[in-house]
Amino acid sequence: MEKSVYRWNSDKPYRCPDCYAVAVNMEIPRWWRVYTCCKCGTRFTRWPVLARFLRDAGVQCSFHRERGTA
Ligand SMILES: [Zn+2]
Ligand SMILES: [Zn+2]
């Protein structure tokens, strides 16, 4: 079972759309990747409807990153 993926805020794609924590500070957010908020675990991307086809970038916060998927 998969959790739903949220659409990021177009003016602040590096922030979690749910808790607004800065969740992506290791790269410029790319539309073809699905990010995971380091704080609340929300997954978000530019086009949620395409989420299953997009690449999972996981946590991209340098403070809280746990696993490396370069
Ligand atoms: Zn969050
Ligand atoms: Zn973080």
Please give a structural write-up:
The protein has 70 residues and is mainly beta. It has one domain (5-58). The protein has no helices and four strands. Residues 16, 18-19, 21, 37, 39-40, 42 line the site of one zinc ion.
In short:
This protein has 70 residues and is mostly beta strands. 0% of the residues lie in helices and 20% in strands.
User: How many domains comprise the coordinates?
Assistant: 1
What's the end-to-end separation, in Å?
A: 25 Å
Bulk shape: globular
- Compressed to H and E, one letter per element, the order equals EEEE
List keywords for this structure.
70 residues, mainly beta, four-stranded mixed sheet
Q: What topology emerges from the helices and strands here?
A:
Blueprint: E1 5-7, E2 33-36, E3 43-45, E4 55-58
Parallel strand pairs: 1-3, 2-4
Antiparallel strand pairs: 2-3
The protein binds zinc ion (2 copies).
